[in-house]
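Components:
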Amino acid sequence: MNSSLHPGPASLANSEPPFIRRLLLAVALIFLTLFLFVPLAAVFYEALRKGVGVYLAAITDPYALDAIRLTLLSAAIAVPLNVIFGVSAAWAIAKFEFYGKSMLITLIDLPFAVSPVIAGLIYVLLFGAQGWLGPWLTGHGIKIIFAVPGIVLATVFVTVPFIARELIPLMQAQGTEEEEAAMVLGASGWLTFWRITLPNIKWGLLYGVVLCTARAMGEFGAVSVVSGHIRGLTNTLPLHVEILYNEYQFAATFACASLLTLLALVMLALKALIERHTLRQRRIAISGESI
Amino acid sequence: MSIDIQGLYKRFGHFVALDGINLTIPAGQLVALLGPSGCGKTTLLRIIAGLETADRGQILFNGEDASRRQVQDRQVGFVFQHYALFQHMSVFENVAFGLRVRPRACRPSDAQIRDKVQTLLELVQLSWVANRYPSQLSGGQRQRIALARALAVEPQVLLLDEPFGALDTKVRKELRRWLRRLHDDLHITSVFVTHDQEEALEVADQIVVMNRGCIEQMGSPQEVYDAPATPFVYQFLGNINLFHSRVHAGWAKVGGLRVQVPEHDDAEYAPAMAYVRPHDIDVLREPEDGDTTLPATISRVSLLGSLVRLELTQAPSGEIAEVEMTRERYLADPLQAGDLVFVKPRQLRVFLYDNSRAGSPVPMRWSGDGDGI
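Structure:
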């Protein structure tokens, strides 16, 4: 996951003959154009084809606004939860030795390995009306499936790995010496975390938050299973897009899709900014080593 | 502040890091924990600091049990091998950290902190880097800042874990001289870990030689070098020549050489090891009367600056021994490769096999056969 942060040595690639270099570049560009740029342009083209009025109407439609609100809400709950979980898990894995450590690392990766639809189904099986806890929940008037809590749960599930995976290698590389130094100097564990650990991982954490947010807002499969598609209540933005599409409202579909696309672009820009910053920091660190 | 360590035992999994350590570190002294890697010296230091806890045993600071005191309350300064400076803070903030994290009631004011940090930076002769970041400093500068940071909280004990281990030779030499001077000024009880015998001999008041989780010997640099208590200490401090020997009734026999060893009066034909330092051997042109010399041939002469090292081949067995002498002494009678000479150990230590816990000796220079007994 972190590989994009490590620019490999350029010398090997430079030794290839020019035509091979051009060929590789052309393949990459053609691929990107066909599969990324054209669809991206199409989204905005289709969204605005019937005019700005239709576009604005589509995204200010009450159902659309509800969907946006729900999407933001589930991200607003899922991301902080994952920050807490990710930092704790990474801390435990990087700084302590304990039994079952590799098991925990594998489990964190589980949401990457499992299809999101299956993740949704698991929650239906657990909390649905016919599920294991269904009768008990119904008895106490708690509704999870086909309601907002289910959507939040599904979102949390699929976004669990993002922050933890980002922080584990970072914290492992940093070791525990700075924390130990702080504690010998009299800082409590809490103070050490805020003054030493957090500043050291903040860029990695931000990077993880960006990825996690992007995924939380874009998640479709798991959320689709638990949502029940109740307009105005349990529809997130991606689900809303699907419904509009199924109703042949293409302009509205693409208008809402463009919102998600814009979100993605903003997140990518943030990610690029953070990467540039961490790269610069590393360069300073390296040039410092060589003095 | 004096430190008393009683019956300290620590195990990591199946590895026994410390096996019953008893040690007293007198107040105001600079003590070196010396030993090969894996001997437990760093573990001992970390337990004193409170960064590790012992499985058994006690640590007393000034006679008071500190074993259960949290690391924050031990009033120790700790200097790490790789500095462990806070990368995201300026040098000033690094040094100020220990003062800033104090509870509000006993936290100095900003002005006091500024004065204190300034004084410390002057002490380590780096007041001009206050606004830089650790990554902009050289290794030696970083370690001096780490020391200033440790001193900022006015610790009762200063603990240094291989403080010069990551530095190059020249900087290391400068820094250890500087540390010695600093200690002479401050007189703070200090313990530093090192695997470099030269460093320990040069800097420390007392040297604690450790091996396999145990203390082999504690003493002044002169004591441990001149009167090593165990074969391990002999081998670890300085170069040695090793002779297989046999001891009987107070006499050790090495090849054709007989040496009196009163401490082994009651030994009977006991196999033993004789240790001689390369500079404790005289090289003569003619044999002496009696059996005090061994014949050998010079196989190689190396001029190493102020020293000259001779490599000798023992006549019957072809084993090799090393002799060091001053350049002047060599030039008074320049021996050449191929010359037949007679070696006479001036000082020789014999350890019976039973007493040697050291296992297989490391720098085997000359294993005379000892079969002549």
